[in-house]
Amino acid sequence: MTEQTRNEAAALAGDLPGVLLEARRLAAAAPGQHGRRRAGQGEAFWQYRDHRPEDGARLVDWRRSARGERLYVREREREAAQTAAFWLDPNPGFDWRSEERLPTKKRRALVVSLALATLFARGGERVGALGAPSRAGPRAVDQCALDLAAQRAPAPEAPRTRACIIVCSDFYEPVDAWRNRLATLSAAGASGACLMICDPAEEDFPYSGRTLFHELGGRSEIVLGRAEHAREAFAERLAAHRRSLREMARALGFLLVTHRTDHPAAPVFALLAAALSERGL
Fold it and tell me: Tens digits of per-residue pLDDT, 37-50?
């Protein structure tokens, strides 16, 4: 780990108390409560439901059904905990904001990820940074936060066991690069969601006149004499890039959700929580 990387990790770790507080507030405001109370092979009773033709006579709970004129099935709660693993893009461009009033893209990704981890851990699931051990229990989210602050893997690594992966990035790299990454995860039995976070300046392209664009963390530069003339072409290319990403992600079992840092985090958090719950987490 380089000195610059250590400094970046230390800065992010120093902000973790505020990030965790924001994440827990976000999770506390979530509609309903996530949990692993779903039908499965456990022993604990969960609920009764109406008998369906495909259930057959063997699954009928005759004692409960004898109280009325309907047939009921006794469902048990799933016992095996699922695993949710998070990856935050370490690219310097992801740790950027166009205005001081805005959070960086990485900070917003960290808040949403830890809010999801809080929700999942509350429901008995295992959570962790991708590449680090996953944990369950009251301290799992705190350790996940520390591991995410230290996470520097240049690409999401395939998990050793089947897991739900939440990939956070601005996804500006070529579609083929992301196809290879998600295909590696999918081949390992993983599925999940891609959270594409952007700064409003990256969508609105508010630049005009002679403008120098410099690659963060790199040496590439480009000067546009009248930047406003590139706005329409930029918007078209960005829209086409995102369409391709969305189709590719869907084909590999991942949901792709877009979020701007000048918008509240609650809607995208609620959307991801609901979508991942429907997918079995």
Answer: 444 444 444 466 78
DSSP of 21-55, one letter per residue? Answer: HHHHHHHHTSSS-----SBSS-SSEEEEEE--GGG
Q: 254: helix, coil or strand?
A: strand
The token duo for 240 is 């086409």
Residue 49: beta bridge partners?
73
What tokens does 229 get?
Answer: 């003339």
Q: 180-218 burial string, b = 16+ CB within 10 Å, else e?
A: ebbeebbeeebbbbbbbbbbbbbeebebeeeeeeeeeee
pLDDT digits (tens, 9 = 90+) for 103-141: 999 999 999 999 999 999 998 899 999 999 999 988 999
List, in order, residues 6 or more apart from 92 with CB less than 8 Å away.
216, 217
The predicted-structure confidence for 28-81, as pLDDT tens digits, reads as follows 987 654 444 444 444 444 466 787 776 777 777 778 888 888 887 776 654 456
Query: What sections of 82-209 are H helices per DSSP?
Result: 105-122, 140-150, 175-187, 200-204
CA-based nearest residue to 171, from 243, 232, 113, 230: 243
pLDDT for the residue numbered 255:
97
Domains of the chain in sequence order: 3-33+81-278 (3.40.50), 45-76 (no CATH)
Distance CA 185, CA 70 (A): 45
